[in-house]
Design brief:
The protein is 37% helix and 19% strand. With 288 residues, it is of the alpha+beta class. It has a five-stranded antiparallel beta sheet.
């Protein structure tokens, strides 16, 4: 059925993905295509390739453009593969979503993402995610929470660092993009983006700590790449005496200065961030 699909450009599918907040070039880069008659149903759909661990195409998920039952249909053995944004499975940080549009929404914001196309996963996935930082970004409902609670204990024994990225005010991350818009969502996810630097993550983690979101603060701290900054900042957040600032001056005065500045300059700053129970923007004294 994949052979019968065509590129999105110039089709009804192109307008559909753009209405959902995904630029045509981003969708096309991820392999999204169009079928005017998916599953011989007489209904048009955008289609998402599903690959196994080796990168072989094992299935295709179709999302119908018009409302109806069913909303989606998958061809091929879904249990063998998943939808992935470019380079996601090789990234050190990865978000695990339910639907392809959720994965595309997070990828648009700079977060490597995959979609299970449901709430179960191929048996090879937990091993593939070993020792990675994993955002469990399944839906904000009973099924999504259940999937998150089942996936977490499969990942932590394999050395993965996990954080439940649960959208607030939307059922899923695709809907969050539609409701909040790209700029707002990107700002809220900035600390998780591949392009984020250590300074941005220090700032985000500190604001989370001030908001008493210790779980999120600790996770973002773990993403800081410079080992010295990461450990020194973790000590500061945990209230331990940090003599290494002055001790480190002789070894790396630039780094110690940057850490001290980042840690002490955020008291009055508004910074959008992720709360463990959902998408939240934090400003002093304000949550929404």
């Amino acid at each position: 059925m994949w052979a019968a699909t065509i590129p999105l450009d110039g089709t009804e599918g192109a307008a559909y993905v753009e209405r959902r907040g995904i630029p045509l070039d981003v969708a096309s880069e991820a392999g999204v295509r169009f079928s005017p008659n998916w599953y011989n149903s007489g209904r048009a759909a955008v289609t998402f390739p599903m690959y196994d661990k080796a990168g072989a195409l094992v299935g295709v998920n179709g999302r119908y453009l018009l409302n109806g039952t069913p909303k989606t249909q998958t061809a091929g053995p879904k249990s063998l593969g998943l939808f992935t944004t470019p380079g996601a499975l090789s990234a050190s940080l990865i978000a695990v979503c339910e639907g392809p549009f959720d994965a595309l929404a997070l990828y648009l914001c700079g977060v490597p993402s995959i979609a299970l196309v449901g709430v179960t996963w191929p048996e090879w996935l937990p091993r593939t995610l070993a020792f990675k930082a994993v955002l469990i970004a399944t839906d904000a409902d009973e099924a999504g929470d259940g999937a998150a609670s089942r996936l977490a204990p499969e990942l932590t024994p394999r050395g993965a660092r996990i954080f439940r990225l649960r959208p607030k005010g939307a059922n899923d991350w695709g809907e969050a993009l539609e409701k909040r818009g790209f700029e707002s969502l990107r700002a809220s996810l900035a600390a998780f983006a591949e392009t984020s630097d250590d300074e941005a993550r220090v700032n985000a983690a500190w604001d989370l700590k001030c908001a008493q979101r210790d779980d999120a603060a600790s996770f973002i701290t773990s993403l800081i790449e410079d080992g010295f900054i990461r450990q020194t900042f973790a000590d500061r957040m945990n209230g331990r005496s940090v003599q290494s600032y002055s001790d480190a001056t002789n070894l790396n005065p630039t780094v110690s200065s940057e850490v001290e500045t980042a840690v002490t300059s955020n008291a009055e700053k508004s910074y959008p961030f992720i709360h463990s129970s959902g998408l939240v923007e934090y400003a002093p004294g304000k949550f929404f």
